[in-house]
Amino acid sequence: MKESVQSIYSFDQLQADNFANNIAKTLDAGAVSLMLSVGHKLELFDLLADSPPSTSQQIAERAGFTERYIREWLAVMVVSKVLKYDPTEKTYYLPAEHAACLTRSSPSGNFAVYAQFIPLVSAVYPKLLDLFKSGEGLTYQEFPCFHDVMAEDSSQSVVGELIETILPLAGDLPQRLEKGIDVLDAGCSKGLALLRMAKEYPDSYFTGYDFCHDAIEQARITAQKAGIKNIRYEIFDLTNFKEISRYDLITSFDAVHDQKDPETFLGNIYQALKPGGVHLMQDIGGSAHLEQNYEFPMAALLYTISCTHCTPVSLAQGGVGLGTMWGRETALKMLKQAGFQSIDQKVFDHDPMNIWFISRKAIA
Asked: Pairing mode, if any, of strands 342-348 and 231-235?
């Protein structure tokens, strides 16, 4: 008869207590994440950043919300040490050092944007439990407001730095855009990055493909309101992307790992580029090897998003389900297999979560 595990290994009560405390902290942090999302969505952090120490009633009146709910939300923010609280005056205050990563004007990035993923994936929680049994997936349409959240994420991680920092990674690319080239954003979502480039480079022509109807419709409306003429958005399933030597630049921002068949997709991008064309790809910069991701920024959140969104949407297409943390090693291997020989990689000091691949198609 085999010995039980507990008879082989002695039970360490201190280790058990420490682990239990860590789990309690994790549960607490999960609750804070949800309330951070509430504060972002209702623009409470932006309001507090511009306010002197105020009572819950004063904050509620300025925000236009009910004091009772505001008071409970404020309590979460106080005990989680996001806000400062004066018990004598009963006033709440958001320090500038805290506002620096929680407001829409944050120069270093608004972390509250990422908190929205918690309620987003929670909306599919009952369906997710069934997926563990069925092995099936979920469509983009089953995630409420997904493209709104991704557009906010893109605005601060891509769009804001696109012209000054990102495009120059590809050497003379800005000069080529000024003269006029053909550009495709493969998986453009609501098209904000493409719109930014179209405004900056009126002599180039820009195309955006995405198979989500709501995202493309919103992109078209935004471009029309902005009066941008050198751009078009098309509802298109990139599984069927088969264009040959058409574009000088193809971008894919946080879009490749969600594809049904990322390897074939990258091969099709290579074929769609003209000789000398550039593929500019942004994705999560984690490793394909789990043991190398212990210290990767927000690794647990990224694996959660992978389990609840990126993997299911790929599987729903009949895909391989690479997931969010498919890894920079996997990406580099697939880019080489696609045909790219010249591949540069860049990670910015201020954004260690993302990696940029700048790949060039050889001139024949």
From this structure: unpaired
